[in-house]
Recover the amino acids of this structure.
């Protein structure tokens, strides 16, 4: 139903967010989301899901405006790196990297940075989708 399609759109958003550093091909997305559909149906499902996701993220965008958050180029999809957003996982990673650097020279500063990073930690990354292969890979990273 409608809520299943909305859930699939949000899951696709989480996938693009997880892979925000790169553009992902339609084929790879289809392999992850619609592996059992024939190629034509799978592509249609992807286009419909991307359209639904864009509508959810930008409900007031006219069809003549370029999407701000989910961009497409040559059959590849990506979260727009120019979009105005911040992600707690990025901040967490930056704080951990800075803390690790500080360990060499200023252990109390390092401890403060680790405490700040820990305050962002809310459990395993996307734990509600822990059985998805792409989520497991991200969980191992963090």
């Amino acid at each position: 139903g409608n809520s299943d399609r909305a859930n699939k759109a949000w899951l696709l958003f989480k996938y693009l967010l997880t892979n925000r550093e790169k553009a992902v091909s339609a084929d790879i997305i289809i392999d992850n989301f619609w592996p059992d559909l024939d190629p034509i149906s799978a592509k249609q499902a992807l286009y419909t899901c991307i359209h639904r996701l864009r509508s959810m993220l930008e409900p007031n965008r006219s069809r003549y405006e370029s999407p701000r958050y989910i961009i497409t180029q040559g059959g590849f999809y990506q979260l727009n790196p120019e979009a105005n957003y911040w992600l707690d996982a990025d901040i967490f990673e930056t704080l951990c990297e800075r803390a690790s650097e500080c360990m060499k020279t200023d252990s109390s500063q390092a401890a403060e940075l680790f405490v700040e990073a820990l305050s962002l930690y809310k459990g395993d990354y996307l734990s509600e989708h822990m059985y998805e292969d792409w989520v497991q890979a991200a969980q191992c990273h963090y």
